[in-house]
Specification:
The chain has 478 residues and is α/β, with parallel strands linked by helices. Helix content is 47%, strand content 12%. The structure holds adenosine monophosphate (AMP) and zinc ion.
């Protein structure tokens, strides 16, 4: 009883349907997820997206795939929509820091926060500034193929030319006319042939710090080209999964597809996965709207909208109670409910450990395990999986009350799979600091010693006491 990877279905944004997952290379998966723009503290919305991809990453690994997970750091080129100013440069001026100090500060914050949520690190975390040459090369190829033009030291993607050969807007299902109508409203740059053309390279003024020499003079890359260049470099022309938040479908991902098609003639990824937004009072949590809730405020209880502190696993559990393709609204009541639910699941392993085995068995463990796999295979349906964990909680109570029986073989299987789903795939184990770990290990030693002492194994109990005493820890039997 285990899941076959042939059963996994993924909702592909490209076709708007669930498809059976089939990787390009038998047991290998290449996955690219757009990472953060490190100009600000990450908010819980950003975290939700990376938490959603952590489940996907963990489950693919569990199925036996060798996954190469690439998640970039955008440290240059993400422009403000209205003013086309680089977000990092703008923030550096506000904080009176070097742009690279801003990048370092918020990259540290990002890693620190994701670590609190127990997210596995990606295999490669490339930065845009570390891949300027690759981006310049790709832009040059787009120009050579006739889909981009240089104007006053900047390079723009020529959407009118592109749409003569390819369809633009495959993910967002927008056509060029819609986009032309929308972009007239924007304060367009006059040097573009058409206002909807997007920047591949921007000329930098001499006061601009983040700039590089290029065939078009000093400048810096646009945001969309970095993901195309880095995805191609580490995962090849065609890879399995490309993901990001749903707000990146347009323009970012539609532009990425256009860039790849204009160089390699094809869409870079087979499956496009988009995670839905975390909202606050029904509105998307966003840095620009200013309704961000920051993880540290929730962990410390300093956000006034929340009545108490919540630990990272409660937040993660709360997020996994919704499917990644649905929006999720955060509130104090919702977190309190999630905390109650999580307590029940968290203690399950202890409950399972303390169950009495019987000779008979009338709990169908195989069916329970298969239901869990079916949930995950159904487009990583975490709420369905969590419902199965709650269901187990009920069954354990029944076993305790003698209404149901489980034998030793089945109990062993059940414990094994509970840990697989709870720990390995949902990653809901709590991370503790070194001090907390030290305390736990010390308690464990004392517990063992006490057992030995009560069993009158004084040789072992004295040995433990003496060794601890050598470390300066005096054990008092009382
Ligand atoms: P950014 O740093 O703004 O580029 O965002 C990093 C990631 O977080 C992207 O994949 C976004 O789509 C995602 N994101 C931004 N806001 C939210 C939100 N409110 N809920 C979920 N994901 C979000
Ligand atoms: Zn990207």
């Amino acid at each position: 009883m285990s899941s076959s990877n042939k059963d996994l279905k993924i909702y592909n944004s490209l076709t708007s349907q669930k498809e059976v997952f089939s990787s390009i290379n038998n047991k290998v998966v290449g996955m690219y997820v757009c990472g953060p723009t490190v100009y600000n503290t990450v908010h819980l919305g950003n975290c939700r997206t990376f938490i959603s991809f952590d489940l996907i990453f963990r489950y693919l690994k569990h199925l036996g795939y060798k996954v190469r997970y690439v998640r970039n750091i955008t440290d240059v080129g993400h422009l403000e929509e209205d003013t086309e100013e680089d977000k990092i440069s703008k923030r550096a001026a506000i904080e009176k820091l070097e742009p690279m100090e801003i990048v370092q500060k918020y990259t540290n914050d990002f890693r620190n926060v994701l670590g609190k949520f127990n997210l596995l690190n990606p295999d490669i975390e490339p930065t845009a500034t570390g891949h300027i040459i690759e981006q310049i090369e790709m832009i040059q190829k787009i120009i050579n193929n006739g889909f981009a033009y240089e104007k006053n030291g900047s390079v723009y993607f020529d959407l009118k030319e592109f749409t003569k050969k390819y369809k633009y807007g495959k993910l967002s299902n927008r056509n060029l006319d819609d986009i032309i109508n929308e972009s007239r409203l924007l304060q367009g740059s006059t040097e573009k042939k058409n206002p909807q053309d997007f920047a591949l390279w921007k000329k930098a003024s001499h006061k601009h710090i983040m700039k590089w020499q290029s065939p078009w003079g000093y400048g810096f890359p646009g945001w969309h080209i970095e993901c195309s260049a880095m995805g191609h470099k580490y995962l090849g022309k065609k890879f399995d999964i490309h993901g990001g938040g749903i707000d990146l479908k347009f323009p970012h991902h539609d532009c990425e597809i256009a860039q790849s098609e204009s160089v390699y003639g094809e869409n870079p990824a087979n499956y496009w996965i988009h995670t839905n937004m975390l909202t606050l009072n029904g509105k998307k949590m966003s840095k620009s709207i200013g309704n961000s809730v920051f993880p540290t405020e929730i962990f410390s209880g300093s956000n006034k909208a929340f009545s108490k502190r919540f630990n990272p696993m409660v937040l993660k559990f709360f997020m996994y109670q919704a499917h990644y393709r649905n929006t999720l609204d955060i509130s104090n009541d919702a977190l309190i409910a999630a905390e109650k639910g999580f307590e029940k699941i968290k203690t399950l392993i202890n409950e399972l450990n303390s169950l009495n085995e019987s000779k008979e068995n009338d709990f169908n463990v195989n069916e329970w395990v298969n239901d869990c796999y079916n949930a995950l295979n159904d487009d990583f349906n975490s709420p369905k999986l969590i419902a199965k964990l709650f269901n187990l909680n009920k069954i354990v109570l029944e076993i305790k009350n003698g209404k149901k029986n489980i034998d030793s073989k089945n109990l062993k299987i059940l414990k094994k799979y509970f840990l697989i789903f709870y720990s390995e795939i949902l990653g809901l184990y709590e991370v503790s600091s070194n001090q907390e770990k030290y305390d736990e290990i010390l308690n464990l030693l004392l517990e063992l010693r006490e057992k030995e002492r009560l069993n009158k194994n004084y040789k072992t109990s004295d040995y433990i006491r003496n060794r601890l005493s050598e470390l300066g820890i005096n054990v008092n039997d009382q």
